[in-house]
């Protein structure tokens, strides 16, 4: 018998939005784990990326999903999986969606590779490949910025007294 968690995996693998919603929006609410991992450690999000399941990706990302969950087999997070997609436009869209959802471009798999390091050869030199690498680099740079690294205009800073110029 299929459990609700296995139904989520199947819906992600087959891009079946109706099936996914039958679990997510069930009345009365069904118990499910959006971060359920199969025997390989793949979650519905891993499969949605691998199979380019564009219909179910956004509803999965709207849940409290672990966007950086790593599978058991090779330690790939969904962002790694998305970077391995051959279709460049789909790959770039998947990566952008994951980054917008907070996926870390710095996560390393079991081989010690970050997602950008999986974009090699022709995939890295094409215009879409270059755009992907830039997207990942910018996201990593933004993640590395701390509050102390951000320059503020005087108008953005709370008035804690006279500025150096006024004193």
Which ranges are low-confidence, i.e. pLDDT below 50, for 5 or more consecutive residues?
Answer: none
Identify the CATH class: Mainly Alpha
Q: What class do helices, strands and sheet pairing give?
A: mainly alpha
Total tally of structural domains:
1
Shape: elongated
CATH architecture classification: Alpha Horseshoe
Number of strands: 0
Helix content: 40-55%
Strand content: under 5%
From the 3D structure, determine the CATH topology.
Answer: Serine Threonine Protein Phosphatase 5, Tetratricopeptide repeat
- Whole-Å distance between the termini? 75 Å
Describe the structure.
The chain has a single domain (4-144), classed as Alpha Horseshoe (Serine Threonine Protein Phosphatase 5, Tetratricopeptide repeat). The protein is elongated, with a radius of gyration of 20 Å. Helix content is 45%, strand content 0%. Helix 1 runs antiparallel to helix 2 (17-24), helix 1 runs parallel beside helix 3 (44-50) and helix 3 runs antiparallel to helix 4. The N and C termini lie far apart (75 Å). The protein contains 8 helices and no strands. With 167 residues, it is mainly alpha-helical. InterPro entries: Ankyrin_rpt, Ankyrin_rpt-contain_sf. GO terms for molecular function: ubiquitin-protein transferase activity.
Name the descriptors.
mainly alpha, Serine Threonine Protein Phosphatase 5, Tetratricopeptide repeat
What's the short story on this structure?
This protein has 167 residues and is an all-alpha fold.
